[in-house]
Amino acid sequence: MIPEAELIRKEVILRKMDFPSNISLTKNSLLRWCALSTGFISPKESRDKGLIILDALFVLLFTKKENPTTLDIQSFIKEKTKADFSEKLIRYHLNRLIEFGVLSRDGLKYKINPAPNSDDRTSLADSFDYWVKKEINEELAKTKTALEKLQEAYKK
User: Fold this and answer.
1) How far apart are CA 36 and CA 43, in angstroms?
2) Which fold has domain 46-113?
3) What is the superkingdom listed in this entry's lineage (predicted)?
4) Cα dihedral angle (95, 91, 7, 147), rounded to 10 degrees?
5) Model pTM?
6) Tens-digit pLDDT profile for residues 86-129
7) H or E segment at 112?
């Protein structure tokens, strides 16, 4: 293993994808597209558990206007799909959204991690734009510095 690999703290995946108009026709298409574009699911993903958890979270957050717990999400999924998802699996997927920056936990409840510059404290788009852009810009600055130093090292 490359010794610098231990310096990795996090990965942010943002895929460059086409956005054909038919994607906007259904909520499920938009959900899958967003999950794929942000790396929440992989291109060859065959399981839909992550998408079911995202759907439940978004229904509770945006339709029912609730900040759900993992048990709320678990109950919603069981009621809607008759499937029994473990709390551990639900927390795993929610923690991925927390690591991404768009979700936060307040006690046992989950909510959108608001962008400080947004008037809408529940805007998923504003949260994504602020927190992901912030991390990407920080990493771009470090990479630029490293590239400048690398070029200087080769000039010697």
Assistant:
1) 7
2) Arc Repressor Mutant, subunit A (1.10.10)
3) Archaea
4) -30
5) 0.90
6) 999 999 999 999 999 999 999 999 999 999 999 999 999 999 99
7) strand 109-112
